[in-house]
UniProtKB/TrEMBL annotation, chain A:
Residues 553-576 are annotated as: Disordered. One of its GO terms (biological process) is glutathione metabolic process. This is Hydantoinase B/oxoprolinase family protein. Residues 566-576 have a biased composition (Basic and acidic residues). It comes from the Bacteria. GO terms for cellular component: cytosol. One of its GO terms (molecular function) is 5-oxoprolinase (ATP-hydrolyzing) activity. Coiled coil: none annotated. PANTHER family: 5-OXOPROLINASE RELATED, HYPOTHETICAL 5-OXOPROLINASE (EUROFUNG)-RELATED. It comes from Nocardioides marmoriginsengisoli. Residues 4-522 form the Hydantoinase B/oxoprolinase domain.
Automatic annotation (TrEMBL), chain B:
Pfam families: Hydant_A_N, Hydantoinase_A. InterPro entries: ATPase_NBD, Hydant_A_N, Hydantoinase_A, Oxoprolinase-like. GO terms for molecular function: 5-oxoprolinase (ATP-hydrolyzing) activity. One of its GO terms (biological process) is glutathione metabolic process. It comes from Nocardioides marmoriginsengisoli. Residues 211-509 form the Hydantoinase A/oxoprolinase domain. This is Hydantoinase/oxoprolinase family protein. GO terms for cellular component: cytosol. It comes from the Bacteria.
Length: 576, 692
């Protein structure tokens, strides 16, 4: 346990700050919009055994997968790890998650002593394969998805393997971006390495290592204490992904969460087998999503490190949607992670009734637009879209926010338009879409675009069309997501939730994210809150009456007697 | 009015800096006379306190109000309007389809796993965000232009809704500022008395959300700032002070009150900027090129970096979002503002920070604070939780009887009593615990300094630290030691240093425009710089000094670095030299450079300033010494040491060894064992460490 509270706190401050410093380095130097603007990347520090010491304020579902990547590095390089090495990997069956997520891992040495590792994960804009962005749902084999990198040395003892780098760059659509983002990862690893060396020098290697043990023990202690307060038992929940994008579905994700004293087991037996398309997750990613879900329901100031992971045990079926077998495709596996979070939170709702929210939009959804320029070069535009959080037990959901599993920004409209390839025709909320409840779920958002390029291939990953974001405690589910061509035009046509299609100049598309679920009986919602939503156009007059039993007069005031009558009628109806 | 705020005439100048608890007023006479005063702030009408304190200072100095040549002001009025949510009833007017841009923002939250988080309420509610049937394309075409009739009809609705302020932000207006200004002008004509901001007038840059937010902040605080400054000016005139009123901007320069009322978004960080400006002028006088300014008060500690005599100025920040240490990562907590602002990193460590132990046995200091009420336990105002000030009293670093020239009585027994439960939890004695809290606070504050140095590729060891604020001098030497900084300077009036910054600041004005494709032609680019410079001259007068600056980045990067364009006629060679400066700055900051053909221009800026006539040396006379009871105190470092307690005047120009406690009226400086200290010819306390 903590031997010297002062030294411990000083050390904890330093490593947490160092991980954030790595992330800031990536952010400020990255070249792609997906990294620099949307912030689809993560950074962490590991000790010499590959345990996470500290992680940056970055992407939850990335961070928990780092131990899996470290295992792959040890499997390959144990005994051969030397100063100046830089390891790369993205292969899902060898420590990776999906091909665009490239891990860059740098061992940190002081003299001959291995102190630990700097780790960064960046979702690169494109790593080749048949579809722009390399994340198409429709891929049926990893061999179609892009370049696979097993654990390899990009630098060996400080010497760059130029052949390796050139081979990678030749296989991707935007080599400048990949190279720039890779360099930002190297810069961040350098930052982390300098910092770890300074820490080891300050405390002495032996003390530095015991401080790491104390830090991991500290998180474990706090987490076990939080778990011990929960009611022991087994809690089950099944959520679904609508379909695999190739016509098969639904895809159940079933979890049994067993809380016993101070440990937690997550058993996914009964979940769907792996699918033909690219939704298949890795075991490391599944674990990562579970860690993120638990961090959402326990006190949020427990440092996220490998000590936090210790109380967990898992049953994750092989060759399942949660743990695909090579050569299954993985590009769109993010969706499974978000649904795992929903399923685990659903299971924990009865255990932590004051903390667990109703389900959110189930995203982010991703729109990838690929354009081939006249000169043969390629352009990939990413527009990750997020909508809503579900209602909380004591407050409304959030309108316009990224889900717990992610923390991605949208892409500035004026930046997208500056490319000259698309025009955005509207971006905003859709009324009556937040799940009704005593506390309302967050609202759907729409994004309308018109293609200006002569021709573009468009690929969308979305869901929550059939299986809606669940409500809790009597709250209604959120509204479905939507993809539509030529909205309000003569050729208006619905598309599937995971379409792959070609747009030509002048055609338009609308995407709508799902709304968040509601919490509690909507007829218990304070009519004043309903009125405020109506005045803000978030709920329509008709919606107020239908979903909440609140009548709003045309002059914008509550019809109290009409409201009482409407609410009483429903009570009558439910008794009858 | 050009020249109206010329600060080069001699006479009395008065600086007034409003904080949440105290208003500091400091007057400076033509012969270097200094009259400081600290009075309680007078919310909600902070101006009344400024007027009465100003009159008291003038009376104390026997100066006639009409002999004041400049009133210089640092104010939190804009920030307060946002924090207390009592700004104007604000509307947003935008392009059809985009009224939710302001509320949706960038979707990010500051804390990863906190599911109880809610976004700050938008400054204009959805019902007050209106759309016009108009569109500016990214190429600058109007498809269609806004119809006058529609704008007039909208004005009627705004009037009917009782709207007090409007932010007009049309999509892509940065490429067609004229169209947005036309809409804003129509609304102004239709809505007399309503405060109207065109987004391009406060942030003529790409990125619709950040521009809309900046315009909304400007309109939201506009009426409050305008009203406040008008009342303050009237109040001063009533008392016979006819000098021009100038306000400190977030960027560190002064701006006349009339311009501030149009662009109040530029004074959000007025107070903190004044302190850094004081450090900048001090550094210039002493001849220091690289300085870490360290400011620690009751609730937070702030750090900023001055390099080659200039503070780092960042292009954007968030207001109302609390501490800004993990800049870029923890976004979403507040309201983005695109206005030049001195880059200041902040952590929640101050004299009032609360000391606690968590269930797993870790010791925490802050960020929660006992505030000014009840304040530290040792003040005897009913505070029971232990704070850093209680720790410092227990350690013997602070006076055992009174602080602030006798105005605050200290009860050491209450400090020890408050610390006892924490000590029990740690299984340590009270002094050990207090010493631990001191060290943890030092470690917290290193994060702030690193954020402005090592995160930018700067080595803190190359800097001198200048410490100020009520608590800064107590921690500075230890913080410097931790960072490898070998010299620390504690100037005179460390507790009033921010208001001193007002007295010595330059008058300053910024203009900028986004880079557009037509700027690729050299002649057009030169013309654009000339146009911006003309606007600056319009504001400051013909003898303003002018800098041309550009924000540059490599293609795809989100963050720009700012570099100065060399003086002289704009030529291809000059641009190449500018790009070379960018590469060098990138190498320095991030340790690598990109290809020359990847360099993009993002913004063109012109900064103009009129240097002040006042040198900081004028204010550095030795202040009156309140005197002390004890000649030594038992101070706890690694062990108890009998430590001499002296006044600044007692310190000589020959270095002496620590430990030493040096008491000023407004702050206490701690010189730990192993450090050396002397008083320089400007009366600064100079603490040195031998290199580690």
């Amino acid at each position: 346990m903590i031997r010297d509270a002062v030294t411990f706190e000083v050390f904890r401050n330093a490593v947490t700050g160092l991980a954030d410093e790595m992330a800031i380095t990536v952010l400020r130097t990255a070249h792609s919009q997906l990294v620099a603007t949307s912030m689809d990347f993560s950074a962490a520090l590991c000790d010499r055994e590959g345990r996470i010491i500290a992680q940056a304020n970055t992407l939850p579902v990335h961070l928990g997968s780092i131990p899996g990547a470290m295992d792959a590095i040890f499997d390959e390089f144990e005994g051969r790890i030397q100063p100046g090495d830089i390891y790369l990997l993205n292969d899902p069956s060898l420590g990776g998650m999906h091909l665009p997520d490239i891990f860059v891992i740098a061992p940190v040495f002081e003299g001959p002593t291995l102190l630990g590792f700097s780790v960064t994960v960046v979702n690169h804009t494109d790593v080749g394969g048949w579809a722009a962005g390399s994340m198409a749902v429709q891929s049926t084999s990893i061999f179609a998805e892009g370049i696979q990198i097993p654990p390899l040395r990009l630098l060996e003892a400080g010497v760059l393997n130029e052949t390796f780098l050139q081979l990678v760059l030749r296989n991707v659509r935007e080599p400048d971006l990949l190279r720039g983002d890779l360099e930002s990862q190297l810069a961040a690893c350098h930052t982390g390495a300098e910092g770890l060396r300074a820490l080891a020098a300050k405390h002495g290697v032996e003390h530095y290592e015991s401080l790491i043990d104390e830090l991991l023990d500290y998180s474990e202690t706090l987490f076990r204490a939080a778990l011990a307060e929960a009611t022991a038992g087994t809690y089950e929940f099944t959520d679904h992904i609508d379909d695999d994008g190739l016509g098969s579905g639904p895809i159940p994700i079933r979890v049994q969460v067993t809380l016993s004293g101070s440990g937690i087991e997550l058993d996914f037996t009964g979940s769907a087998p792996q699918v033909a398309s690219a939704l298949n997750a890795t075991e490391s990613f599944t674990r990562s999503a579970c860690y993120a879900a638990l961090q959402g329901v326990i006190p949020s100031d427990i440092p996220a490190n490998s000590g936090f992971y210790r109380p967990f045990s898992f049953v994750i079926p092989d060759a399942s949607i949660l743990n695909g077998r090579r050569p299954s495709a993985r590009g769109a596996r993010g969706l499974v992670g978000f649904r795992i979070v929903d399923a685990v939170l659903g299971a924990l709702a009865p255990v932590f009734p004051g903390r667990v929210p109703a389900a959110g939009d189930g995203g982010p959804n991703g729109i990838a637009i690929g354009i081939v320029r006249d000169d043969g070069g390629s352009v990939v535009l990413w527009d990750p879209l997020s909508g809503a959080w579900g209602a909380r037990p004591d407050r409304d959901g959030v309108d316009g926010i990224s889900s717990l599993g992610a923390n991605l920004t949208n892409t500035p409209i004026e930046e997208l338009e500056q490319s000259g390839y698309i025009r955005i025709d509207g971006y905003g909320y859709v009324p009556d879409t937040g799940g009704a409840g005593r506390w309302r779920g967050g609202m759907s958002t729409f994004r309308d675009m018109t293609m200006l390029a002569p021709e573009a291939s468009v690929q969308i990953r979305s869901d929550r069309r059939m299986f809606l974001p669940y409500g809790l405690a009597g709250g209604a589910p959120g509204s479905p997501s939507l993809n539509m061509l030529d909205p309000n035009g003569p050729d208006e046509r619905m598309l599937s939730s995971k379409p792959q299609f070609v747009m030509t100049a002048g055609t338009s598309h609308r995407h709508v994210t799902a709304g968040g679920g509601g919490h509690g009986d909507p007829f218990d919602r304070d009519p004043d809150r309903v009125l405020e939503d109506v005045l803000d156009g978030k709920v329509t007059h008709a919606g107020a009456a239908r979903d909440y039993g609140v009548l709003i007069d045309p002059d914008g005031t509550i019809d109290s007697s009409g409201t009482s009558r409407l609410r009483a009628d429903r009570l009558e109806g439910s008794r009858a | 009015m050009p020249g109206s705020h010329d600060l080069r005439s001699s006479g009395w100048r008065v600086g007034a800096d409003i904080g949440g608890t105290f208003t500091d007023v400091i007057a400076l006479g033509p012969a270097g006379e200094v009259v400081p005063m600290k009075v309680p702030s007078t919310p909600p009408d902070y101006g009344a306190g400024v007027v009465s304190a100003t009159m008291s200072v003038l009376a104390a100095a026997s100066v006639e109000p009409r002999d004041v040549v400049a009133m210089l002001h640092g104010t939190t009025v804009a920030t307060n309007a946002i924090l207390s949510k009592n700004g104007a009833l604000t509307a947003v007017v935008t392009t059809r389809g985009f009224r939710d841009v302001l509320e949706i923002g960038r979707l990010r939250r500051p804390s990863l796993y906190d599911l109880s988080w809610s976004r700050p309420e938008p400054l204009a509610r959805r019902r007050h965000r209106y759309e016009l049937d108009q569109r500016i394309t990214s190429g600058g075409l109007l498809e269609p232009a806004a119809e006058e009739n529609e704008v007039r009809a909208l004005a009627s609705r705004l009037r009917a809704d009782g709207i007090e302020a409007v932010a007009v932000c049309l999509l892509n207006s940065y490429v067609r500022p004229d169209e947005e200004r036309r809409v804003a002008d129509l609304l102004r004509a239709e809505l007399p008395g309503v405060y109207v901001t065109a987004s391009v007038d406060v942030s003529p840059q790409l990125q619709e959300y950040e521009r809309t937010s900046t315009a909304a902040v400007n309109s939201y605080v506009g009426p409050a700032v305008h009203g406040y400054l008008t009342r303050l000016e009237a109040g001063l005139r009533n008392e016979g002070v006819v000098a021009p009123l100038l306000v400190m901007q977030s960027s560190g320069g002064l701006m006349d009150a009339g311009s501030v009322a149009e662009r109040p978004v530029q004074i959000i960080e007025s107070g903190p900027a004044a302190g850094v400006t004081a450090v900048q002028k001090l550094a210039e006088m002493i001849g220091l090129s690289t300085v870490v300014a360290f400011d620690m008060g009751g609730t937070t500690a702030k750090a900023s970096l001055i390099e080659d005599g200039e503070p780092f100025v960042s292009a954007d920040y968030e207001v109302g979002g609390g501490m800004n240490i993990a800049r870029g990562l923890a976004s979403g907590a507040g309201y983005p503002v695109r206005a030049p602002s001195i880059d200041i990193a902040e952590v929640g460590s101050g004299g009032g920070s609360i000391i606690a132990v968590d269930p797993a046995g870790a010791l925490h200091v802050g960020p929660s604070s006992a505030g000014s009420r009840p304040g530290p336990a040792c003040y005897g105002h009913g505070g029971e939780l232990p704070t850093l000030t209680d720790a410092n009293v227990t350690l013997g670093y602070l006076s055992q009887t009174s602080l602030a020239g006798g105005t605050v009585t200290i009860h050491p027994d209450l400090a020890a009593k408050a610390l006892a439960p924490v000590a029990d939890q740690l299984g340590a004695d009270v002094q050990e615990t207090a010493r631990g809290a001191y060290q943890v606070a030092v470690s917290n504050m290193t994060t702030a300094v690193k954020a402005v140095t090592s995160e930018r590729g700067r080595d803190p060891r190359d800097a001198t630290m200048v410490a100020f604020g009520g608590a800064g001098p107590l921690y500075a030497a230890s913080l410097a030691r931790e960072l490898g900084i070998t010299t620390v300077i504690v100037p005179v009036y460390p507790g009033l240093f921010s208001s001193l910054g007002l007295l010595v600041a330059d008058t300053e004005h910024h203009e900028l425009t986004s880079y557009r494709p037509e700027h690729a032609e050299l002649r057009v680019l030169a013309g654009e710089f000339d146009r911006l410079a003309a606007k600056v001259v319009d504001e400051l007068g013909g003898d303003a000094e002018i800098d041309r600056l550009v924000d540059m980045r490599y293609r795809g990067q989100r963050f720009e670095l700012r570099v100065r364009v060399p003086d002289g006629e704009l030529t291809e060679e000059l641009l190449a030299e500018t790009r070379a400066r960018f590469h060098a700055e990138h190498q320095r900051t991030y340790g690598r450079v990109g290809a020359d053909d990847l360099v993009e221009l993002v913004n063109l800026r012109v900064r103009g300033w009129i240097p002040t006539a006042v040198a900081v040396a004028d204010v550095l006379d030795l202040p009156a010494d309140p005197g002390r009871a004890a000649a030594t105190r038992s101070c706890r470092f690694d062990e108890l040491v009998a430590t001499p307690v002296i006044g600044r005047a007692d310190l000589g120009s020959d270095p002496v060894e620590g430990p030493l406690v040096i008491e000023d009226m407004d702050a206490t400086t701690l010189v730990p064992p192993g450090a050396r200290v002397f008083r320089d010819r400007f009366n600064n306390i100079v603490i040195t460490w031998s290199a580690p």
